[in-house]
């Protein structure tokens, strides 16, 4: 929090930590290209590979499994290009995606429209595992790619990835990708223990700079073609000179997040739960989305019947509070959420959805400031209801 603002939109982007800024500055001071063989180049390469190790440790991978990208969208697009396959097997010809996936999955794939199926979610926002099992059984003779995110960016609902992977393994010819952009750095994730074939992440969601991410692949899984062609960097998968300052910053943020994961999760869950209770005390008819499911410890998404989210966002912003109505994927976009629609939320209720997402620099002063503004917003809403009645 600054003196005049409370930033509660960490799921959109988390402010860069001071230690990360310092790491970026050190990388900026290096003159060498990581691909050069002279001393300056070797120093840059050493920084790059240290960052790779740090990112790998955060998600339970080995450094060679990590390919740096410009962010989660590029990484997901690469996985869903149709070129991912298990060694010795054909590439998947069918794609199954969860109904609450991020647009980088729903719009970022390159499968033909008739080869894509959307998996429903329960009212809680959790993937319908029975529906997944039924579709895999029906596609038992096909090579399939299943894409289910680790946690939802709007509601914070955490998906049962281990169960998804188990169903895919029982199918025998299915690969599993998880868009873990919102989960990495907030909850424990171990790509090896989960058995995931591919995981994608983005640094700015856990206090690294914007514009840097990574793709993590199992050892026995490969991409048949480079997704950015050029000079052969990143094991010839993502060519072009690496964004060394961004990558070093992401490595620093990954190390901090890994070391503080349990403590941060407990602190943020305590703050979030207290905030949720206070919201419901001030607006008893409020609906908290995903409340019955496991959620990220930092995320609260709710709606008050009759509340208009665009109007409320303006009121919060004028009060010095940054919150969101959902995903921050298009500048200025405030529209009905496909995520809430997939959960069966009525259009009227979805129109008022607000997302409060906490982070490393959130304190009780920030949540208290939000509650003060929220109280004024709902008082106005209830007063108008009374006048209308």
Quick recap:
The chain has 389 residues and is of the alpha/beta class. The protein is 39% helix and 14% strand.
Descriptive tags:
389 residues, alpha/beta, three-stranded antiparallel sheet, 14 strands
Question: In what range is the share of β-strand residues?
Answer: 5-15%
Q: What profile does the largest beta sheet have?
A: 7 strands, mixed
Number of helices: 12
Mean pLDDT: 95
What do these coordinates show?
The protein contains 12 helices and 14 strands. By secondary structure, it is of the alpha/beta class. Helix 1 packs antiparallel against helix 8, helix 2 packs parallel to helix 8 and helix 8 crosses helix 12. The two termini are 40 Å apart. It has a 7-stranded mixed β-sheet with strand order 2-9-8-7-6-4-5, sandwiched between helices. Strands 11-12-14 form a 3-stranded antiparallel β-sheet. It is 39% helix and 14% strand.
Secondary structure layout plus pairing:
Elements: E1 6-7, H1 18-28, H2 39-58, E2 66-69, H3 72-79, E3 84-86, E4 94-98, H4 103-106, E5 116-119, H5 129-138, E6 144-147, H6 161-171, E7 174-179, H7 191-194, E8 198-202, E9 213-217, E10 221-223, H8 244-282, E11 287-288, E12 299-303, H9 309-318, E13 321-322, H10 338-342, H11 347-350, E14 354-357, H12 364-388
Helix pairs in contact: 1-8, 2-8, 5-6, 8-12
